[in-house]
Amino acid sequence: MTEFLRLLRYAAPYRGRLLAALAAMIVYAASSARLAYLLKPIYDRVLIAQQDIPAVATAIVLVYLFRGAGAYASGYLMTDVGQRVVRDLRHRLFRHTIDQSAAFFSRRTSAN
Asked: How far is the C-alpha of 17 from the C-alpha of 79, rounded, in Å?
């Protein structure tokens, strides 16, 4: 658990992007729930009564549009944050290696 919290500190500078990704995930989840809610009107009004076909079809298209946008945005932002955290870790490791003294490098050769 301590390793996870330590890694989580590297994501702290990207809180805004993480919050935006969370909002996109909420949009995706709400759209998925709305699709389940649309099943009743599809069965009751469209398939059986042949009513409200344009309204229900438009609702389905809009819900899928929001669902896709939420999935894309959350995936993009989470990937972006992950790559930025890895970049920061690599930069920190590289900086640590470069800041070593010449004596450190003479004691430790690449053959050891």
From this structure: 10
Q: For residues 66 and 43, give the distance between their C-alpha atoms in angstroms, rounded to a whole number.
A: 22
Please give the single-letter amino acid code of residue 111.
A
CA distance 61 to 68: 10
> Whole-angstrom Cα distance, residue 75 to residue 24?
9
**Packing angle of the helix pair 53-98, 2-11 (nearest 10 deg):** 100
Nearest to 31 by CA among 82, 77, 73: 73
- Which pLDDT does position 31 carry in this prediction? 96
Q: Percent helix, strand, coil in the chain (nearest 5)?
A: 90, 0, 10
| Distance (Å) of CA 33 to CA 64, 67, 86 | 11, 10, 34
Indicate the pLDDT class of residue 7, thresholds 50, 70 and 90: confident
Residue range 30-80, pLDDT digits in tens = 999 999 888 888 888 778 878 888 888 899 999 999 999 999 999 999 999
